[in-house]
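Lab channel / #folding
Pinned by the channel admin:
"Please post every new chain as: sequence first, then the structure tokens as a reply. Keep commentary short and put observations after the output so the thread stays searchable."

First post following the new format, from NK:
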Amino acid sequence: MSYLHSAELQPATVIETDANAIVLDLGSNSEFLAGLPEGSGAEWLTAGIRRQMQAADTAFAYGRYGEPRALYDNDHFAGDAGGSGERRTVHMGIDLFCAAGTIIRAPLDGVVQLVANNERELDYGPMLVLRHDSGYGQSLHTLYGHLLLSSVRELTAGQRVAAGDPIAAVGRPPENGNWPPHLHFQLILDLLGLGSDFPGVCRASECNLWLGLSPSPAKFFPTIPADRLDFGSASPVR
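Reply from TO:
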């Protein structure tokens, strides 16, 4: 049995949410996105997500793992150098939309693997990767994207953190990659030497590879049923 699926893996809460948190449909055929007034950019999407949260009387909304999205529309997600023309569209983590400045906590004991600031438009912005060792020769990494830059300035590679420790805070646009304020949380079994360039979005034709390396992190958000956090839920929005 892998560390990820072992009984000993009992994550602490990454972000404290309320009981009314919703799950958004941000997919390519999203009725929610299609129903928004004409616009683009962080302010347009932020306003739409806030309306959804206000209607549900919550300050929190999740974005699904494995969801194909049309939001990734700039050159950062363009076709590969091999000329296939296929864009990266499939989300490899779970998003948690909430107020900028919201505290993020380490889910497990671990070590800071890297801290970086990917400043390209629609990239991670300030981001952090932790490494977590099982003690049985297995490890996994957790990636945190779209952070508040000031919240990670004191972190250094090799620094130890304990489960439940504050490690960062949710960023705001444009500093966070110019996204609505949210945490992108992703599991990684093998960084492949890519460091801060490990993707958070993959091509649909390469899902078997990339989603195998970044399995669903639904276990880290147990207040929402896993089948609602993974793409394919019959009724994603509550």
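NK: Residues 3-229 form a domain with the Glucose Permease (Domain IIA) fold (CATH 2.70.70.10).
TO: also worth noting, The radius of gyration is 17 Å.
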